[in-house]
Amino acid sequence: MGGKLMWEIDNFMRTRTKRRRKDDVYAFSQYISMSADKARRVIDQIRGHSYEETLMILELMPYRACYPIFKLIYSAAANASHNKGFNKADLVILKAEVNKGATMKKLKPRARGRSYLIKRPTCHINIVLRDTSYFEEFRKFMINLSEDDRKRVLIGLEAERAYLDILESRWDKK
């Protein structure tokens, strides 16, 4: 490997590790009064889609769980554009998970002084959006490489090994 390529890979890997935390946006919603299974049915349909596709999917789905999820994704995108300055068109749903929340219990009066227990399940929804403009930067980086170097970097493990070799070679020099 040439010195320039090692420097470029090192520089790219360094920016990648720095940006990994910066290009994620989180939004949480807790104690939504619906079953986790019903919310999970909707969440499974939108995971991995872009922000705009997700809004269209949620508007057209006939489930009651769509509205709170729609509000949450809209809120996460607003957080991304306001707090971090991301473009909403570049956002992708990286992680979407539904967890079971506390069960609310109510008593319903019945005949002869009895009462029946009514259980209202709740759920917690976590959404993580990622800015995909990073992948555009990676594409531009790959275009500038020669064909042989591009093949090495595309193999993934090869790029990680090259990066680790660069780090080890720096430590060997005294």
UniProtKB/TrEMBL annotation:
Keyword Plastid belongs to the record: yes
Keywords: Chloroplast, Plastid, Ribonucleoprotein, Ribosomal protein, RNA-binding, rRNA-binding
Gene3D superfamilies: Ribosomal protein L22/L17
Protein localization: Plastid, Chloroplast
Pfam families from the UniProt entry: Ribosomal_L22 (PF00237)
SUPFAM superfamilies: Ribosomal protein L22
A GO MF label: rRNA binding
Cellular compartments per GO CC: chloroplast; large ribosomal subunit
Chief localisation class: plastid
InterPro entries: Ribosomal_uL22 (IPR001063), Ribosomal_uL22_bac/chlpt-type (IPR005727), Ribosomal_uL22_bac/org-type (IPR047867), Ribosomal_uL22_CS (IPR018260), Ribosomal_uL22_sf (IPR036394)
GO terms, biological process: translation
UniProt family annotation: Belongs to the universal ribosomal protein uL22 family.
Complexes and interactors: Part of the 50S ribosomal subunit.
Role noted for this protein: The globular domain of the protein is located near the polypeptide exit tunnel on the outside of the subunit, while an extended beta-hairpin is found that lines the wall of the exit tunnel in the center of the 70S ribosome.
Designated name of the protein: Large ribosomal subunit protein uL22c
